[in-house]
Write a structure and sequence with these properties.
The protein is of the alpha/beta class. It has 13 helices and 12 strands. It binds pyridoxal-5'-phosphate.
């Protein structure tokens, strides 16, 4: 099982008119900082406020309603997933469009704003445990007991192909791109973009970015196989969670296709959220700014036209307001020390 450039082309046809063609805009501020053009792919312009709709639409379009459950592809009984919030929103949206029942399983770490957004789309929500693994266990129970079909947030060929359409759009708009900075969690986004981008531009630099607290893919790549990493709260909450010890696809694709993975601190994420807001006037989740954080912290050398993906905007506005005001942010035991934005 793998994902080919042809799978991504066909995903592009499936999502056309609903989840494609997001804006690609220049960032004058980052361009000045980096000394080369820096572009932002605005997935915050998606109907659900995040790129995950691409993969969810493609996966749900591939289900048939006939044979129910039991690990088959029949979706008559409905669909289920675990999620850090945005995948659940994508699945809820895509399921509603097909008139399917959707049950979204999430842990207590998921911000209330994301939970509310999913309920508003008519999906059922289950809050279980304190980690993505707990949420996954509940989702798998629903597959066994109620015959729902599970849609993995990142380890599913159709989901990966859907996310890969971003790579297709980027390289079609700008065949001269030298480097892509891709937020990285379970690796569905990075794997899909990498398949599309490498096919079009074999020499392009592909860099995955995660927060340094709980970066499961990075730890797994270092170990040479999927490993578990304790899940802790982060400003980049959408990047939390493991990659699954039985990872089938996204791990191998990230291992084979990414050039490197760079980690950024909570402090660097905090500052990059401020920069994106005050300089580019964009409100986005912590998970989106890991590429910007790496540029500002000098952790990545920009050597030509570079694009990063502003992956989602489904954030807790009270937390965003606190960061823009320079206040401390408390996440469990961990405090991100605040400071006012200074260019
Ligand atoms: C899911 C998500 C990511 C990471 O995607 P993966 O496929 O899990 O690597 C990044 N940013 C946002 C906003 C997300 O929702």
């Amino acid at each position: 099982m793998t994902v080919t450039p042809a799978d991504i082309q066909s995903a592009a046809r499936v999502i056309a008119g609903v989840a494609d063609a997001t804006p690609l805009v220049p960032s004058p501020f980052l361009t000045a900082r980096a000394g080369h053009e820096v572009l932002l792919k605005l997935e915050i312009a998606q109907p659900i406020g995040a790129f995950k709709l691409r993969g969810a639409l493609n996966a749900i379009a591939g289900l048939d309603e006939g044979d129910e459950g039991g690990g088959g592809t029949g979706a008559g009984a409905g669909v289920t997933c675990c999620s850090t919030g945005n995948h659940g929103r994508g699945v809820a949206y895509a399921a509603r469009a097909r008139g399917l029942r959707a049950v979204i399983c999430m842990s207590e770490l998921v911000p209330q704003a994301k939970v509310d957004g999913i309920r508003a789309l008519g999906a059922e929500v289950r809050i279980v445990g304190t980690s993505q693994d707990d949420a996954l266990a509940e989702s798998q129970r629903l597959v066994r007991d109620e015959g729902l079909v599970e849609i993995s947030p990142f380890d599913d060929p159709r989901v990966i192909a859907g996310q890969g359409t971003i790579g297709l759009e980027l390289l079609t708009a700008r065949p001269d791109l030298d480097c892509l900075l891709i937020p990285l969690s379970g690796g569905g986004l990075a794997a899909g973009i990498a398949v599309a981008a490498r096919a079009l531009r074999p020499d392009i630099r592909l860099i995955g970015l995660s927060m340094d607290r709980g970066a499961a893919m990075q730890a797994s790549l270092a170990a040479g196989h999927p490993v578990e990493v304790p899940e802790v709260p982060s400003l980049a909450d959408s990047l939390g969670g493991g990659i699954g010890l039985n990872n089938r696809l996204s791990f191998a694709l990230c291992r084979d296709l990414l050039d490197e993975v760079i980690l950024v601190t909570e402090q660097e994420i905090y500052r990059a959220m401020q920069a994106l807001y005050y300089e580019d006037r964009i409100v986005a989740e912590g998970a989106c700014v890991v590429g910007i954080a790496a540029i500002l912290a000098g952790k990545v050398t920009v050597t030509g036209p570079t694009a990063t993906i502003i992956t989602g905007r489904n954030l807790d506005m009270a937390q965003h307001a606190a960061i823009m005001a320079g206040q401390d942010v408390q996440m469990g035991e961990y405090t991100v020390k605040g400071s006012r934005y200074e260019p």
